[in-house]
């Protein structure tokens, strides 16, 4: 479609795990992108890999900038106008739950300021279309699964509260100025990697999340996986989550953006991005063993404070509004995550 070819989208956090996959899918859909990232939790090598996957005929620009620094707002406005942006996907931010409990102000400052500066820049550039990386963490432990978007919002840690406050801020922005089209995407548990094996998650230090931990055990970097509790009221006693392949997730952003850019109606909406079904920790480990053909030693330890037994999405709204649903299986998630881990055992390193 002609209008797709001319979309010019800012991707904040575009060098990060999810952002790099979003960048690839936006380029594949014919859009031009401007990645804005300060590489606080990512590598410039990811940008080379995005270009490599996307091929020669794409328009990828990069602005290395701390979006949380108010002094950079003018630079961002200039870049947005110069680029001719007509929308943005906002992924930049900090995301470690434990760290947010220890350093809440750093989380509030970074996550809220980055959003504030971006929204101001989009306003100045006349590009009032925004897809925001929210999280299923905004639901906390207050709902029965499957959770739909009308579920009670009750985040249980500072990281989750930054997402909740930003959602609220964006809802206010959209109701005050009818030119805005905003979508808060509530991701469930993104895992896996691009099937090329060239981009994937590259955690600094010991991983907090299940899949990167399993992958590091499989590749021999860590001795064994600790399973946080086997006495939950779930079928096998371990925690149940809605794992979503990062490529499906990235395509969900393209679908959301397409919807925002073409719909008549303005305003803000909230949409879950999940598969709509749950898998337990033991199922994930078994699937990873099959995909990697490696032994993955485990031990059962105490529950992790703050964890809930089970959460998975009602993914109906994304299907109804965007015509989007996940296509990849748990096996695909493990196979692709494993390929990335095996081929990049130390993360992003120059070829
Ligand atoms: P990530 O850390 O890999 O990516 C975030 C990117 O933002 C990084 O490239 C980082 O360098 C950049 N960044 C951080 N602070 C910045 C700043 N001040 N200025 C400019 N750039 C900055 O994380 P991810 O897993 O790709 O997550 C992307 C987004 O999705 C985040 O907002 C996260 O909260 C949200 N999210 C992630 C998950 C998940 O499980 N990974 C789940 C739900 C929501
Ligand atoms: C999954 C399951 C653990 C590690 C977190 C954030 C959330 C969101 C995604 C951004 C649980 C179990 C884990 C391990 C284990 N991020 N587990 N051993 O907790 O659902 O969500 O990441 O928005 O905000 O809270 O994901 O991958 O950490 O855990 O047994 O070493 O694996 O108990 O049942 P979680 P996770």
Structure description:
The protein has 12 helices and 14 strands. The chain has helices spanning 2-6, 17-28, 45-54, 73-83, 97-102, 104-125, 158-176, 210-218, 246-262, 281-292, 316-322, 330-343; strands at residues 8-12, 32-37, 60-64, 87-90, 129-135, 181-187, 189-191, 225-228, 240-241, 243-245, 267-273, 279-280, 298-301, 310-311. Helices cover 41% and strands 17% of the residues. It has 351 residues and is α/β, with parallel strands linked by helices. The strands form 4 sheets. The chain has a 7-stranded parallel sheet with strand order 3-2-1-4-5-6-11, sandwiched between helices. A 3-stranded mixed sheet has the order 12-9-14. A two-stranded parallel sheet has the order 7-10. The chain has a single domain (8-343), classed as NAD(P)-binding Rossmann-like Domain (Rossmann fold), CATH 3.40.50. The chain starts with a helix and ends in an 8-residue tail after the last helix. Nicotinamide-adenine-dinucleotide (NAD) binds next to helix 2, helix 6 and strand 5.
């Amino acid at each position: 479609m002609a209008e797709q070819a001319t979309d010019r989208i800012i991707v904040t956090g575009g060098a990060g795990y999810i952002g790099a996959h979003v960048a690839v899918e936006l380029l594949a859909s014919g859009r031009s992108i401007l990645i804005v990232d300060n590489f606080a939790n990512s590598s410039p090598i990811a940008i080379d890999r995005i270009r490599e996957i996307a091929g020669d005929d794409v328009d990828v620009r990069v602005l290395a900038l701390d979006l949380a620094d108010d002094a950079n707002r003018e630079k961002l406005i200039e870049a947005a106008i110069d680029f001719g942006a007509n929308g943005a996907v906002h992924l930049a931010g900090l995301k470690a739950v434990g760290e947010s409990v220890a350093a809440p102000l750093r989380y509030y400052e970074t996550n809220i300021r980055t959003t504030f500066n971006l929204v101001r820049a989009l306003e100045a550039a006349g590009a009032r279309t925004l897809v925001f990386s929210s999280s299923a963490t905004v639901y906390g432990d207050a709902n029965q699964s499957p959770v739909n978007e009308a579920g009670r919002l009750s985040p249980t840690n500072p990281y989750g509260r930054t997402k909740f406050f930003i959602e609220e801020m964006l809802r206010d922005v959209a109701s005050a100025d009818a030119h805005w089209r905003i979508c808060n995407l509530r991701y469930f548990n993104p895992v896996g990697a691009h099937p090329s094996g060239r981009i994937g998650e590259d955690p600094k230090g010991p991983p907090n999340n299940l899949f990167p931990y399993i992958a590091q055990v499989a590749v021999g970097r860590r001795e064994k996986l600790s399973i946080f509790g086997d006495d939950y009221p779930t079928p096998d006693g371990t925690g149940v989550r809605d794992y979503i392949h990062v490529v499906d997730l990235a395509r969900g952003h393209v679908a959301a953006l397409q919807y925002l850019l073409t719909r008549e109606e303005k305003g803000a909406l909230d949409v879950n991005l999940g598969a709509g079904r749950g898998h337990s920790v033991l199922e994930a480990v078994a699937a990873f063993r099959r995909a990697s053909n490696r032994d993955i030693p485990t031990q059962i330890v105490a529950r992790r404070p703050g964890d809930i037994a089970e959460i998975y999405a009602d993914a109906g709204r994304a299907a109804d509004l965007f015509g989007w649903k996940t296509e990849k299986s748990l096996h695909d998630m493990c196979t692709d995550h494993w390929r990335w881990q095996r081929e990049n055992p130390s993360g992003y390193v120059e070829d």
